[in-house]
Amino acid sequence: MSGTETLKAEIKKLSAQAMQAKMDLHDLSEELPVNWESILEVAGRTHSAYASLTAKRAELKRLEGG
């Protein structure tokens, strides 16, 4: 598997993780004030997931010369 193919596979996995984190945050917001204590943890996980996804997409773009 080439470097770009490996990176695309990583991006696909990170995208799924980011979408799950987004849904978890959405679900939490709909249930408030229940579980309000977990807002920072869920938001932090969502932030990290999207930061990783953005970085990998930028890396792929550099590899592809764009």
From TrEMBL:
<comment type="similarity">
    <text>Belongs to the UPF0437 family.</text>
</comment>
<protein>
    <recommendedName>
        <fullName>Rop-like protein</fullName>
    </recommendedName>
</protein>
<dbReference type="InterPro" id="IPR029012">
    <property type="entry name" value="Helix_hairpin_bin_sf"/>
</dbReference>
<dbReference type="Pfam" id="PF05082">
    <property type="entry name" value="Rop-like"/>
</dbReference>
<dbReference type="InterPro" id="IPR007774">
    <property type="entry name" value="Put_N_fixation"/>
</dbReference>
<feature type="coiled-coil region">
    <location>
        <begin position="4"/>
        <end position="31"/>
    </location>
</feature>
<keyword id="KW-0175">Coiled coil</keyword>
<keyword id="KW-0535">Nitrogen fixation</keyword>
